[in-house]
Specification:
By secondary structure, the chain is α/β, with parallel strands linked by helices. It has a single domain, classed as Alpha-Beta Barrel (TIM Barrel). 28% of the residues lie in helices and 16% in strands. The chain contains 10 helices and 14 strands. The protein has helices at 71-85, 103-111, 128-138, 152-159, 164-176, 197-207, 233-241, 307-312, 317-329, 349-352; strands at 28-29, 35-36, 38-42, 89-93, 118-123, 142-146, 182-186, 210-214, 246-248, 259-263, 269-273, 286-289, 294-296, 305-306. A 12-stranded mixed beta sheet has the order 9-10-11-8-7-6-5-4-3-12-13-14. Strands 1-2 form a two-stranded antiparallel sheet. Strand 12 (286-289) and strand 13 form a beta hairpin. Helix 2 packs parallel to helix 3 and helix 3 (128-138) runs parallel beside helix 5 (164-176).
Length: 354
């Protein structure tokens, strides 16, 4: 992450530093000196799973088609981000991005931008087996697959779909297509799959995947998140430590969300993203774009800026870029999950983008 010295304290407070004038700077900086270089783009709010910790069994009220950005609008915003705002990394998310028609074409158009951004994707893996090679050919650099269990019955219980074999096939296809490192994202939940920390890690080590455990966050559509049900980073490490020898990863973490440990001396490693108990907001370098064209400065923000209206009203690239810069300048120091007045975002994770 590139920090900008604004003569301001780098210790996070709780609120944005109002009244501080934004300096002349082309990038997406905020009043705490952070600069966003990583863009998360939701291609759709739709999903073909119904994970119990994400949405109800009947699904959600999906965005009407006319509200979703067109391919041209999506690519234009990503071009503005790369050419004018200093974005170097783009992650395509959802919902489930594999449900987006024309995905391979979008990837190809984005990887053709100059300077070329690194482009990755987060997916549930369903349908990936048939498309991994095509996505790699289009220029996709790497992939993350969400997988919380390797037990088929438990997978069906958690996702309300019996699709584990399809996910495993997708992982293998991504590896074979060279979308490396292939990363696996897993959420452990108390009373559901908390006993799978070691089995998941052993599976990933054996298959050559990079496992990242993520603390469950308050982003469910039902607003039923309970801190007591969350398996903390400390608990995850304790469970892993009972089966493996963990040692600090030698490379600096930088702005990466995961703290990493070598497993049994390496070369395999495991990461833990402790968004709740060990927030990394002070090093955050992310900005987010929803499927309907809203820019969010933080995953947990309740404020966003509508760029779609700017686009459809004929705004110039420079005007869109300025609106984006203004949004990021107002970013808070942290997500405030651990503050008494924290309010869960109105939009659920499936609508914001991972």
């Amino acid at each position: 992450m590139t920090a900008v010295d604004l003569g301001l304290p780098r210790v996070p407070g709780t609120r944005g530093q109002t009244g501080v004038p934004r300096p002349e700077h082309p990038g997406l900086l905020d009043s705490f000196g952070r600069v966003a270089t990583d863009l998360r783009v939701s291609l759709t709010d739709r999903c073909n799973l119904r994970c119990t910790y994400c949405m109800p069994a009947e699904g959600l009220d999906w965005l009407p088609g006319e509200q979703v950005l067109t391919d041209d609008e999506l690519v234009r915003l990503m071009r503005i981000a790369v050419e004018q705002l200093g974005i170097t990394d783009i992650r395509l998310t959802g919902g489930e991005p594999l449900l987006r028609a024309g995905l391979e074409d979008i990837v190809g158009r984005v990887t053709a931008l100059r300077p070329r951004p690194r482009v990755s994707m987060t997916t549930n893996g369903i349908g990936l087996a048939k498309r991994a090679a095509g996505l790699a050919a289009a220029g996709l650099d790497r992939i993350n697959v969400s997988l919380d269990t390797i037990d088929r019955a438990r997978f069906a219980e958690l996702t309300r779909r019996d699709r584990l074999p399809h996910v495993l096939a997708g992982l293998a296809a991504a590896r074979d297509a060279g979308l490396s490192p292939v990363k696996v994202n897993a959420v452990l939940m108390r009373g559901l799959n908390e006993d799978e920390a070691a089995p998941l890690l052993r599976f990933c080590l054996d298959e050559g995947y990079h496992l990242r455990f993520i603390e469950q966050m308050p982003l469910d559509a039902q607003h039923g998140w309970n801190r007591a049900d969350m398996i903390t980073a400390a608990e995850i490490l304790e469970k892993l430590g009972a089966a493996f020898t963990l040692s600090p990863f030698p490379a600096a973490r930088g702005g990466a969300p995961a703290e990493r440990w070598l497993v049994d001396g390496g070369p395999g490693d495991v990461g833990v993203i402790a968004s709740v108990t060990r927030p990394f907001c002070a090093a955050c370098e992310r900005t987010r774009l929803t499927a309907d064209g809203a820019v969010r400065s933080c995953l947990f923000s309740n404020d966003e800026t509508d760029l779609r209206t700017h686009l459809r009203a004929g705004a110039r690239d420079e005007e869109v870029a300025d609106a984006w810069r203004a949004t990021m300048w107002g970013k808070l120091a942290g997500h405030e999950i651990n503050e008494a007045g924290f309010a869960q975002p109105i939009r659920p994770m499936s609508a914001i983008g991972g």
